[in-house]
Design a protein that fits this description.
Blueprint (H helix, E strand, L loop, with lengths): L2 H13 L4 E2 L23 H5 L8 E9 L16 E9 L5 H13 L14 E6 L3 H11 L6 E4 L1 H4 E3 L4 E12 L17 E14 L10 E15 H8 L9 H14 L7 H22 L8 H19 L7 H12 L5 H4 L1 H35 L7 H11 L3 H9 L1
Parallel strand pairs: 1-2, 4-5
Antiparallel strand pairs: 2-3, 3-9, 4-7, 6-7, 7-8, 8-9
Helix pairs in contact: 3-4, 7-8, 7-10, 8-9, 8-10, 8-12, 9-12, 10-12
The structure holds glycine (GLY).
Length: 415
């Protein structure tokens, strides 16, 4: 099933059940706690907190999301992306667990010719928060899931927040069993490669304070209402429904990956190292197009720095793969061609997006030409002296004098 069809079915399913279809918000919402929208619920945060009155009780959206915390993992695992699309259904003080659980189950298990995703019921498992007997009971009573496919997990896995102070709550995650070829038996608690998370239902009912990690924060109190916030990753769903191993090989992303292979002269599927690089390019080129499209300009801090870092990673990987000429313009063209059917604003902004990306590429290629020579000299002098570590002083000089980015120095030094 194509990504566009997965998206269409999600929105239709919830629209038919009284949800208002809300278009994706910009990645740059005015929220001082976030650089970018990092979840489908972010545009609705004021409604959860009771700071604004929602114009609807039920909503559904497919929201553009950027998450850069795990950027080093992109391409190495089957499922890390810096840009992805989050399908969600939301209830603002309307239905709660008793509505969200059967909705998700129905959409997943309804056959494909009847408008669903066609998952076999016996391949689905769920997890619930450790003391959430209510959700565990509903999975059995409302949809008939056997008790031995419901597992309990603690705060780290089954309590969701935006990672910053704000609305939060226990969650229940739905997993698809890909079978014994992918790992050992025992449900999601045993193996999250075999049991792939497809949908997270958050029972949004509390407010969290400051604190590190996924459990080191206080719960400050209750939200004015009990709400629902769910997240189904479109790319992950596409990987399953298209029968490919990872999110970089789905219809929309694969087109960019193939273009990167063509432009660099390195075929996909020949070596793990170059496959990782091609997957990084496919993911990051798309992120660049969307970030620039939403108004980010490369810079040395904040959002601009994230864009600069991502663009530079694309350029470095393309060089590593064998591209000797600039490629950013072509990659952006392909990313836009893949995504514009769902996001027509990319077409309106095409010329500007391309110009910004190509401008950043030529500046960086110049920096690389000067910086690489200095880097090589520094490495040679370390080696001559019998060492294996580039000093902080040398790394700083590369950055300060030649504009050579520290993350690139770290990557090259590690190599
Ligand atoms: N807000 C739910 C999720 O992103 O998983």
């Amino acid at each position: 099933m194509e990504s566009a069809e997965i998206r269409r079915r999600f929105l239709n399913f919830f629209a038919e059940r009284g949800h208002t279809v809300v278009p994706s918000a910009s990645l740059l919402l005015n929220d001082p706690t976030l650089l970018f929208v990092n979840a489908g619920m972010v545009p609705f945060k004021p409604y959860f907190l009771g700071e604004a009155v929602p114009p609807y009780k039920r909503a559904t959206s497919v929201q553009k999301v950027v998450r850069t915390l795990d950027i080093e993992e992109v391409g190495k695992t089957t499922r890390h992306a810096s840009f992805f699309q989050m399908c969600g259904n939301f209830s603002f003080g309307d239905y709660f667990k008793e509505g969200a659980i059967p909705f998700a189950w129905d959409l997943l298990t309804t056959s494909t010719h009847e408008g669903g995703y066609g998952f076999p019921e016996d391949k689905l498992w769920v997890t619930v928060y450790e003391d959430d007997d209510e959700a565990a009971g509903m999975w059995q009573e409302l949809v008939g899931l056997p008790a031995d496919r419901i597992q309990r997990r603690g705060m780290v896995d089954n309590f969701w927040s935006m990672g910053v102070p704000g609305p939060c709550g226990p969650c229940s995650e739905i997993y698809y069993d890909r079978g014994p070829d992918y790992g050992r038996e025992g449900g999601p608690v045993a193996d999250e490669d075999r049991y792939l998370e497809v949908w997270n239902l958050v029972f949004m009912q509390s407010i969290r304070g400051e604190g590190p990690g996924k459990e080191g924060f206080p719960i400050l109190g209750d939200l004015p209402n009990k709400n629902i916030d769910t997240g189904l990753g479109l790319e992950r769903m596409a990987a399953i429904l298209q029968g490919v191993d990872n999110i970089y090989e789905i219809d929309t992303t694969r087109g960019i990956l193939d273009r990167a292979a063509e432009l660099s002269g390195t075929a996909y599927g020949t070596a793990e190292g170059s496959d990782v690089a091609l997957r990084v390019v496919a993911d990051h080129a798309r992120t660049c197009a969307f970030l620039i499209g939403d108004g980010v300009i490369p810079g040395n801090e904040g959002r601009g720095y994230v864009l600069r870092r991502i663009t530079r990673r694309v350029i470095s990987k393309m060089r590593e793969l064998g591209a000797h000429e600039p490629t950013m313009g072509e990659l952006i063209d392909t990313a836009i061609a893949q995504m514009a059917p769902q996001y027509p604003e990319l077409n309106d902004q095409h010329v500007r997006i391309r110009q910004v990306a190509v401008g950043e590429e030529s500046a960086f290629l110049q920096t690389l030409r000067t910086g690489s020579a200095i880097f090589d000299t520094a490495v040679a002098s370390v080696r001559t002296n019998g060492g294996s570590t580039l000093s902080g002083e040398q790394a700083f000089a590369l950055h300060d004098t030649y504009g050579f980015p520290i993350d690139l120095t770290l990557e090259l030094a590690a190599e």
